[in-house]
Specification:
385 residues; alpha/beta; FAD/NAD(P)-binding domain; 6-stranded mixed sheet; 20 strands; binds flavin-adenine dinucleotide; FAD
Length: 385
């Protein structure tokens, strides 16, 4: 069987793997991208329905995606100008783009349109070879790593980048130990037409241990993410009944909610692989970390991985050397762990059994809200500015 040689192999062509492939293709490198289910490229701009899976992309990651010319058209994005976070006993913190002299705090985009934008650019490069297959085995040599595909092909390169998601097959082939902690919550996502203007404001409520976010979409619509311990009961409700629950949990701030499209639930798990690399393997995106969605940082962390690794590989002589892989981990692990701990800490701080902490957590929010210097520093950090 013939072996095909590349500068790098990428397993998984989701947002993170596709961005990695594009970034390396731009450097003129020969890349093999393994993705068993490549996305459809014929989305209709007339399709008014917004994807229920949406992301709040930080300005620094937006700039990166724009530099790759992989940013959805303007009518499929929504700028967020303000954020309003409310605790469970009168605590409140508000952020405003104007206060930190930035055009917007974050941008909302849909999963399938961002994926399409990335894949459309990928198809423009002849140095990226796409394999719509899975690998059956992985073999390590001293200076290379090889994948044996289910169609008999063998691909080899000095480095394998694993972007194959939370249950990464590549990671399972290594001896990297993964610490997995279920939150016993599911995230429910759905979209609504709202009665009152949302004012380009992202709203969030911490209530009874649940976390609900309203994210603005164009044309007086919103997307919601509800992290709940009673997701099974909520998913059993009719669309109209669930919409009423969402409106009540959000204090009827936007009036009546009319459902658009389907709702989905996904299990929330904190995953912390002990390392972000194994010999000749780098983990990226959800393969390297998963996080509670309360700060909307899941995919942002993944794009951070891509930028760091891509920058390192630009200068590295041997892409898969221990030195390169250690540098990658050194650059990313602290940022990833800090964000994981921050979101995990907030989630537990607002759990209902923490009632003695109720005063502390709510006054804390109010106190930070008064300290504009600290508040603006925090939001700038979250935005990657
Ligand atoms: C329903 C839902 C809603 C979400 N909402 C939000 C949100 O609002 N905000 C947010 O920040 N995050 C959200 N997330 C998390 C976010 O989707 C992830 O952080 C992000 O998609 C990670 O991207 P990724 O490319 O690393 O992994 P994935 O998107 O999981 O992509 C992995 C890719 O690898 C491919 N693959 C899998 N196995 C193999 C294999 N063996 N060989 C080859 N390829 C393989 C898959 O087909 C897939 O294309 C949500 C997740 C879900 C499931």
């Amino acid at each position: 069987m013939n072996t095909q040689y590349f500068d790098g192999l990428i397993v998984g062509g989701g947002l993170v793997g596709a961005a990695m492939a594009l970034s390396l293709a731009e450097q003129g490198k020969h890349i093999a991208l393994l993705e068993p289910s490549p996305p459809s490229l014929d989305l209709q701009s007339t399709d008014k329905h917004w994807d229920a899976r949406i992301y709040a992309i930080s300005p620094s990651n937006e700039a990166f995606l724009r530099s790759l010319q992989a940013w959805p058209e303007a009518q499929r994005t929504q700028s967020v100008l303000k954020m309003d976070v409310q605790g469970d006993a009168g605590g409140r913190i508000e952020f405003d783009a104007q206060a930190i002299h930035t055009p917007h705090l974050t941008s909302i985009v849909e999963n399938r349109w961002l994926l399409q934008a990335l894949w459309q650019r990928l198809h423009a490069y002849c140095n990226v070879t796409i394999f719509a297959h899975t690998a059956t085995t992985l073999t390590q040599e001293i200076d290379a790593i090889s994948l044996h595909l289910d169609n008999g092909d063998i691909l080899s390169a000095p480095l394998l980048m694993a972007a194959d998601g939370a249950n990464s097959w590549v990671r399972s082939q290594t001896d990297i130990h993964t610490d997995s902690k279920p939150y016993h919550h599911h995230g429910i996502v759905a979209n609504y037409q709202v009665q009152k203007p949302h004012g380009a404001t992202a709203r969030q409520w911490f209530k009874d241990g649940d976390v609900l976010a309203y994210l603005p979409l164009p044309e007086q619509q919103i997307s919601i993410v509800w992290s709940s311990h009673q997701a099974q009961a909520l998913m059993a409700l009719s669309d109209a009944e669930f919409a009423e629950q969402v409106a009540a949990q959000g204090e009827h701030s936007l009036g009546k909610l009319t459902p658009i499209g389907k709702r989905f639930a996904f299990e929330l798990i904190l995953r912390r692989p002990a390392n972000m690399y194994a010999p000749r393997i780098a983990l990226l995106g959800d393969a390297a970390h998963t996080i509670h969605p309360l700060a909307g940082q899941g995919v942002n962390l993944g794009f951070g991985d891509v930028q760091a690794l891509s920058q390192l590989l630009r200068l590295a002589k041997d892409w898969g050397s221990l030195k390169t892989l250690r540098s990658y981990e050194a650059q990313r692990l602290h940022a990833v762990r800090s964000m994981q701990m921050g979101c995990d800490g907030l989630f537990h701080l607002f759990k209902p059994q923490n009632t003695p902490l109720s005063w502390v957590r709510n006054s804390g929010l109010n106190m930070v809200n008064q300290l504009s210097g600290l508040k603006n520093h925090l939001i700038r950090q979250a935005m990657g500015l």
